[in-house]
Design a protein that fits this description.
The chain is α+β, with helices and mostly antiparallel strands. The protein has two helices and four strands, in the order αββαββ.
């Protein structure tokens, strides 16, 4: 599962990337934090300048995740600054 937030909306207007990057750098960008259980993962989807645009773009991303039939899928919309990694997997457990 190599999902990255940016790859999901790369077809958006490339002229807006400087605005998105600036908003992200100062913590004003909108991101979705999507958490799944079984498999355990956290996906960051963004950055977006407007919450409304994030909400519209998020629906297909969530539908794609649902095809993997996670036990649960929750998301929160946050105004924050993020950098890679956009996918967080649990660290492997160390042997006892």
């Amino acid at each position: 599962m190599g999902r990255m937030g940016r790859s999901q909306h790369s077809s958006m207007n490339p002229l807006l990337w400087p605005v998105r990057n600036l908003a992200n750098a100062v913590g004003l960008a909108w991101w979705a934090r999507v958490e799944t259980r079984s498999p355990e993962a956290v996906y960051w989807f963004g950055p977006f300048v407007r919450r409304r645009t994030l909400e519209a773009a998020l629906l297909p991303f969530l539908e794609d995740l649902r095809t993997e039939t996670p036990a649960s899928l929750e998301h929160r919309l946050l105004r924050t600054s993020r950098s890679e990694p956009y996918t967080e997997l649990p660290s492997p457990s160390l042997p006892a």
